[in-house]
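EI: anyone free to look at a 169-residue chain?
SC: sure, send it
EI:
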Amino acid sequence: MVHIITGDGKGKTCSAIGMAVRGLGRGMKVLLIQFLKPQAGSGEILYLKSESRFACLNFGIASFVNRSRLLPEDIRLASQGLEAAEKAVRSDEWDMVILDEVLLAVDFGLVSVDRVLRMVEEKSGAVELVLTGRNAPAALIEKADLVSEIRPVKHPYWNGIQAREGIEF
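SC: here you go
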């Protein structure tokens, strides 16, 4: 199946990581490809990297990417990330492939929605594919089997409280 986890709320990546843990617990091999994020520094990924059936690839240069400050390197890395994703979803090496923030990469124009749609259509039927990020395009929502939207209700950041190690990262 193809899953989309989108919306403006906190927890899209965490939800996908929860799916990864569930899959790993059932013997699946899981690949996490992160767009717009540098080498993994979040606690859950640091922990999962010790699992032999889990791999994480990062294609980003900054922790937070701003649409108005995109660099040529952001475009190059996003394209490389999508190439890795295309290869992974066509192979039989992985049971689950998570493309974290790929929807934001599409929204920012770093990768085309048409290319992501082609990848979804050409994926191996054995691969569970999870796409996360804000602003999921209608064409991908239509193609997905399951779509969840996370919306913010209240967040401590709105009161000036910064992300805390072990809680938000």
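EI: The two ends are 28 Å apart (CA to CA).
SC: 👍
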